[in-house]
Amino acid sequence: MQAYFSSWGQEGIVDLKHELEQVLMFISSRFLLGYEVREMMLEEVSSLFHELENGLNFFSFLFPYIPTPTNRRRDKAHIRLKEIFTTTIRSRRSSGRVQEDALQRLMNSKYKDGRSASEAEICGMIIALIFAGKHPSSSTSIWTGAFMLSNTKFLIAAVEEQKHIISKYKNQIGYDAFSEMDTLHRCIKEALRMHTPAQMLARKAHKKFKVQTKEGKEYDIPEGHNIVIPTALNNKLAHVYNDPHAYDPDRFGPGREEDKVGGKYSFTTFGGGRHVCSGMALAYLQIKVIWSHLLRNFELKLISPFPKVDVSKVGQEPKGKVMISYNRRQLQCY
C-alpha cells in the first residue's frame, strides 16, 4: 500500500477510479496469486482482468456468446489468463516449489472422493476468486471516496477517527486498529447501500414457505421455485431507511441502526443467512486499509462532478473518470 502511493508526488491530480482499481488488483494478487505472476506478469494479468470486467455488462449478460468486440476481447483475455495460471501450476508441480497463497491451496485441495482438482478447475476457481475479491471492492472503494469527499461532515468525522487511531496505535496500524474504525466502516456500508455491487441475488426454495409484506399480505413460495431479491431496491425502501436516497452513514450508528430496526434482512448487499457472502469481512478490510492510508497521508478533494452510475454495467459502477486533487500531509494525532 505504502509502496504504491509513494509514487504519487507531493501534490497532483489523479483519476481515483484508475488508482483504486490498480491498488485492489495488487492487494488481490498478493494473497491469491503466487510470486511468479505477481512479480513478473502482474501488469499483463491486470490488463486481462480489465477486459473481463469490461465484458460484465447487461448486453453480454443476456447474450454472452454474440461475437461483439467486447465479448471477443473478454474471451481472448479469459484464454490467456488460463494459459498463465496453467503454466504456473505446471511449473510448481514439476519443481516441487510451494508458495503460501490461495493458488497453492487450490492445487493441494481434494474433493470428497479423494480426487485432486484439475488444472482447468483450479484456473476457473482462481479467476473467480480474483474477480470476486477485486471487482466489487474496487467499485465500492471508489463510491466511498466520492461520497466522503462530497460530504464534508462525514469526511471530517472519518479524519478525526484516524487521528484517534494514530494516537492509540502510533504507527502500528494492524487488524485491531482497522476493527475499531467504526466511522469509516459506516461510510463504506452506506456507499454499499447506495450503490450495491450486485443489484439482485438469486436463491432457490428448497422447501415451501410464506412471506409477509409490511401491509400483512402473505404469499406462498412453492418448493423448487427460484427467487430473486432486488438488492438495489431493498436498500432504498423508505419504510426501512429514513430519506433513503441521501448519503447518511450515521443511519447505521448507535441509536439509529436502521438496518437492524427494519428487520433481520433489511441490509442484503452481501446476502444473508447461510449463504451470506464469505468475502464480506475481507471486502470491508481491503477498503479500510486503502482509505485509512489515504486519509492519514493526503488531503483530498473531488474536482470532477460526482460520478453517475454506469447503467450499461451489471453492477452499479461509477461511470467515467473520478478526478481528485491531493496534497501530502502527515496527520497529527491528539
TrEMBL record:
Transmembrane annotation, as ranges: none
Cofactor(s), names only, from the UniProt record: heme
Annotated binding of heme, by residue: 277
Superkingdom: Eukaryota
Record keyword Zinc present: no
Alphabetical UniProt keywords: Heme, Iron, Metal-binding
Keyword Metal-binding included in the entry's annotation: yes
A molecular function (GO) term: iron ion binding
Pfam families linked to this entry: p450
Similarity section: Belongs to the cytochrome P450 family.
Protein name (database record): Obtusifoliol 14-alpha demethylase
Species for this entry: Aegilops tauschii subsp. strangulata (Goatgrass)
